[in-house]
# Entry
Amino acid sequence: MHHIIIGNGVAGITAALTIRERDRSAQITLISGESDYFFSRTALMYAFMDRMSLRDLEPLERKVYDAQKFNRIRAWVTNLDATTRTLTLDTGQTIQYDALLLATGSRPNQLTVPGAAAVKAGLVNFVTLQDLESLEKWTKLGGKAAVTGGGLIGIELVECLTHHGMQVDFFVREPWYWPAALDKEEAAIVTGHIRHHGVNVYLEESVAEIKSDTAGKLTGITSTSGKQYPLDLLGVSIGVHPAIEWLTQVKTPPATKRGILTNPAFLTSLPQVWAAGDCAEIELAQGKPLVEQIWYSAKRQGELAAKSMLGDSIAYQPPIFYNSSKFFEIEFTTVGQPNAPGSETFFHPFAGAEASIRITWRDSAVTAFNMLGSRWNHEFFERWITERRAPQYVIDHLAEAQFDGEFCTLPLAEAQSNFNQSRSPR
Amino acid sequence: MIRQTTYDRFAHDITNRGISAWLLAALLTSFYLVLYFTEGLTPVAKAIGLDSKWTLYGLIYTIAVVAGGIFVIRRYRHNKYQVVRTCVVMFVQSILAFALPQFLKAIHQPEYYFSYFWPLKLDYLTPNTIFHYPLPIILYSFAGSLILVPILGAFFGKRWYCSWVCGCGGLANTAGEPFRHLSDKSTTAWKFERASIYTVLGICITLTALLFTTYAIGPKHPDLAAFTYKFQSFYGLIVGTMLSGVVGVGLYPLGGTRVWCRNFCPMAALLGLVQKVGRYRITVKKNMCISCGMCSKYCEMGIDVRSYAQSNQSFTRASCVGCGLCAEVCPRGVLKLENVSAKAPQQRLVQITSHRSEMNHSSLR
Ligand SMILES: Cc1cc2nc3c(=O)[nH]c(=O)nc-3n(C[C@H](O)[C@H](O)[C@H](O)COP(=O)(O)OP(=O)(O)OC[C@H]3O[C@@H](n4cnc5c(N)ncnc54)[C@H](O)[C@@H]3O)c2cc1C
Ligand code: SF4
Ligand code: SF4
Ligand code: SF4
# Structure
């Protein structure tokens, strides 16, 4: 059996390891145009800030690839012919598979505002190693930078540029930072923190027009409120989409919508072709088709897709949503679906700390946790949500889920008494 | 990418094995060679009113620990574990490992370092030396080395000594902070470490046994006595002088701060074994690691923490000194240093979930 995996990201590499664990003799080939070895995309910011070298981003020692007998090919796949089970690479080479996994990840969304097409230099994304390279080139020149798009990648880019001494404007289209993940109160804490680092945060404002000189070098923007901002660098982090563009050019494209469509076993519309990770759109047994674009889901999907390739019967069912992030120094853990209609919430900001907890429930069963500025073990939250625990139970047992380091424990009693007061009959 | 200021370029060079790092390593190594093998520093000590080059060395060492400690406390001021730990390290070095022995000497008492124990300080258990001390100190030394050290090790792991008390660890975690990431993370380095450190421990225990035997029957066997004392001074030269001093500190800018602690220290070997069966461990939060590698990068013992974290394995490595930096730098709060008792809630949960089939990359190790 020759298993070929396009994409050596976390989905692809997890699939490769899973196949190898079960089948010592299978031929496994990893193809990627971006890098020779699997690297941690989530750590790009630490390479940018010189806290790690590019080599440090590689989660596996290089000798593992030989030990696991993975063939590695550094190339872009340009054609997929499912009738002959053949791939063509941009090097001209063709290669045949018995089973193929598409784990091509995602691509950054681009600005389509007036003037964007004319820019040849100074407009950057922050997703790939190549993006990092061009960012570094522009950062070296110093000057004024802006980042548009208020999500996690955006704030990471802001932190990096600030670290390099650039004056940074941060444009957030929404009324507060990252409404998809944060409520207004948490966002206020985070925004205060970002501003404290010298960043200008502009809420409800985004890029309306991009200006560049005759050579195509970016010179500034006009914002949606009509203001002019002279700039040397504009970072665009307005979300990502599954990397499916290349599939429109191939001989036998698999069915796609937002991403590469798969059934709950990660099988695409093509025989012997599976998809997993950021690029996949899974039509679940029930509910809406699912595109998951985080590290944890890519890892999970990569493992399950591999098992499906090996013949296991798989019916993907995503677990309760959880994620974590860090906004400069503030850590954040979220579990569950916070904004469900009809839910009630308890929010407690801790006095004198950039920390807060938020517990959400509906029909007196907890549904979500949003914890800012301290560490929590999400497994407890998941369990309490599954067990449909009452908010009072959760508040009383909250200490069990604390994961703060020794001597650093958040004083929960304050929050607990606040909760009990708010619930006691007046 | 390096920040574009002269200071940052230099800081990068010296902390990333650049030319200035090699120069610093040469400087540190020569300092130790001059200190150990010449009297070059004696006049300097006398000139500033100190009685010997060793007092001068103690003073420089203490200043390095205190200055480095202030730097570390500023850097990690948001993390109380680091602040408390660093304060203790500074206190132990300046009082127990400097001021108190100097004071004892001044009042014509034996110069004894209450923060050192066998087998790190061989002399503190071996009869030909320790029996020259007053009885309370002999008792303290035996009880400390044979009872206190292992018991605390079983409860808190080797960290109570290696990153709270010991002067070598103290220097590594203060003045050495900028170099901590230079430790080699490869499995090859791990193999070397295991071979070398238990070899040193074996030699150390053999020598200690020989010294006791010699003490008991030496007068009747002058050949044995001659051999033992030669062996002892050879051990002192190789292990005490060359490995712990010249190599241990001299190589900070090239091999990181724990070259000695990791590969050669007999105390580390012993405490590591205790740690393996004791309560200390690093708990890994399940499925939260993003494989960024910050933990591995900043582990001064060269432990590939990421390999455990990304495969959801809580772990206790014999070499882990419990500095807590992996947990500090982890951007996703995945790691927690713990002394696990059976009733700890984290432990309970791990037991519940550990038989679930999770991502298992143990085939990589
Ligand atoms: C800056 C940044 C920070 C992030 N931080 C977090 C975080 O903190 N937490 C979190 O959960 N998620 C985070 N994410 C998202 C996370 O990194 C992704 O969800 C995850 O990497 C997806 O993995 P993947 O294997 O599906 O795809 P990728 O890692 O994107 O891998 C796909 C690979 O396929 C290759 N490829 C694509 N097309 C072709 C082709 N035609 N031929 C050859 N090769 C091809 C690409 O070059 C790429 O190397 C972050 C993302 C970014 C960009
Ligand atoms: S390993 Fe040895 S020298 Fe290093 S801190 Fe521990 S006891 Fe001290
Ligand atoms: S594993 Fe963590 S606590 Fe242990 S030595 Fe390494 S960084 Fe320190
Ligand atoms: S620092 Fe944290 S998230 Fe990063 S690899 Fe280590 S455990 Fe995983």
Remarks:
- Confidence is low (pLDDT under 50) at residues 347-365 of chain B.
